[in-house]
Amino acid sequence: MVLGLIDVWRCHSLSSPRTIFPCPGHWHFSPLPEVKALETRQEKILVQLAELKAQVLSLCDVLKSNENPKSPRKSKREPVTADFVVNVNPESPAYSLLALKKLWSDVDFRIEPFQHSSVQGVIPEGFGRTRGCGESVISISLIWKKVNNAELVLSSLHESRILGEVNLLRYLSRLLDNHDSLPPEEATKIDGILDLSHQLVSQDNLKIKLSIINILDKKITNGNWFSTRKTPGIGDVAVWSALKQISPKSLPSNLASWYQKCEKSLNV
């Protein structure tokens, strides 16, 4: 009996002053409330971490599938059929019309030239009748006419017109390539190049023309195209056409090399 009391006293002396823990063999062990609360909190944290890990892994799978270089950027183009009129002044030929097949090799561009009574004299060379092959067919009636800017006439009934050569390229790009689906940064860059090429033709001030040429020269890096593609884009064709129209005496080094590259690539 004395030994039992001693055991109880020894266990009491080793325990918390608030809780008596019996020695083994006499009572069952009971953890502190603080320990139970800590264990419960730890279990909740582990569950939350497991859920967070699952979400992160799922997000990584989505990002990998979106960035997969093997996945096509866009699906095959649905066949497109269009028929419209383009009025062009022979004093400012829209040379971009000659490069349409280079931009969209799978489209059948059928260009039929006509001469308006307001135009007298020689018509620029190279703008003859063209026929191609492809599921998509774009029929263009090219009319040489005294106009201030190239005019794309979508409907003769309602006189719906799009003015400017660069806007003709914008229209075709949206019709055939869905230009609006490009990343915002790339679409903004292309629109800026198109605007500069339009100013290059429409601007009469020689100093401003030279300034625009220098700006374009700086936008070419490592002899590449203005676009991010490995082939010429609408921005390249627009600037090339503008330079052919104004025929500058000389070009900065980058732009000169790029222009020669255009001449060979566009093969016109």
From TrEMBL:
Residues 81-161 form the AIMP2 thioredoxin-like domain. The keyword Cell wall biogenesis/degradation does not apply. It is found in: Cytoplasm. InterPro entries: AIMP2, AIMP2_thioredoxin. One of its GO terms (cellular component) is cytoplasm. Coiled coil: none annotated. Keywords: Cytoplasm, Protein biosynthesis. Gene3D superfamilies: 1.20.1050.130. GO terms for biological process: translation. Pfam families: Thioredoxin_16 (PF18569). This is Probable aminoacyl tRNA synthase complex-interacting multifunctional protein 2 isoform X3. The lineage of its organism: Eukaryota, Metazoa, Ecdysozoa, Arthropoda, Hexapoda.
